[in-house]
Amino acid sequence: MSEKQIISKKDFLKPEYMIQLYAQGAFPMADENGVIEWYLPEIRTIIPLDNYNIPRSLRKFMEKSNFEYKYDEKILEVILNCANRPHTWISEELIEAYKKLIKLGYVHSVEVYENNELVGGLYGIAYRGAFFGESMFSKVSQASKCALVKLLERLNEKGFVLLDVQFQTEHLKMFGSVEISFDEYNELLFKAYTKKVSF
């Protein structure tokens, strides 16, 4: 996948600059030394909100499971769980930056609970009709997949246009993720920004 690094200055972790960069389709990642870079891939991966797939086995699992789902109740806890792995791009500095975006209402989470315990979830950045998915975690089987289903349902219910999932994975292919050109992606961004919707 072709990528071009576009910026790496600390000033661009200020909320106003972060949102400007997200709005252009860029996203931050910290390397193993904690240095945060912003990336703007030329090939984009999205899950089409008008043409996604929910695996039949997952549908059956969700019907029988005792999972409960909530939104934006424990955003920071979801981020910390996503970062809690041996190798992570979610550095302490990036977490501090996310805290500021949470206060401004740009960061959102889908949370999965079992017996009142947070067992899975995901988070991302919402800007007008675009949702930029960042990371997910799962402490029990299927929890993160269920969170993604709930995200897809929520975004459609609220009238979002774009779900950006950054990179293609086998996990995301199950849900109908596709790679598109940057030109196609920009067209979706434009449509998304004409929408006045909220998560």
Structure, briefly:
With 199 residues, the protein is of the alpha+beta class. It has 7 helices and 10 strands.
Overview of this protein structure:
The structure is a single chain. By secondary structure, this protein is of the alpha+beta class. The chain has a single domain, classed as Leucyl/phenylalanyl-tRNA-protein transferase, C-terminal domain (Aminopeptidase), CATH 3.40.630. The chain contains 7 helices and 10 strands. It has helices spanning 15-23, 56-64, 75-83, 92-103, 143-158, 170-173, 182-193, and strands spanning 5-7, 27-30, 36-39, 43-46, 68-71, 107-114, 117-127, 130-138, 162-166, 178-181. A 7-stranded mixed sheet has the order 5-6-7-8-9-4-10, sandwiched between helices. Strands 1-3-2 form a 3-stranded antiparallel sheet, with helices on one face. β7 (117-127) and β8 (130-138) form a beta hairpin.
Please provide the count of β strands. 10
User: The CATH topology, please?
Assistant: Aminopeptidase
Low-confidence stretches: 1-8
Please estimate the helix content.
25-40%
Say which CATH homologous superfamily is assigned.
Leucyl/phenylalanyl-tRNA-protein transferase, C-terminal domain
* Biggest beta-sheet profile: 7 strands, mixed
Would you spell out the secondary-structure blueprint of this structure?
Blueprint: E1 5-7, H1 15-23, E2 27-30, E3 36-39, E4 43-46, H2 56-64, E5 68-71, H3 75-83, H4 92-103, E6 107-114, E7 117-127, E8 130-138, H5 143-158, E9 162-166, H6 170-173, E10 178-181, H7 182-193
Parallel strand pairs: 8-9
Antiparallel strand pairs: 1-3, 2-3, 4-9, 4-10, 5-6, 6-7, 7-8
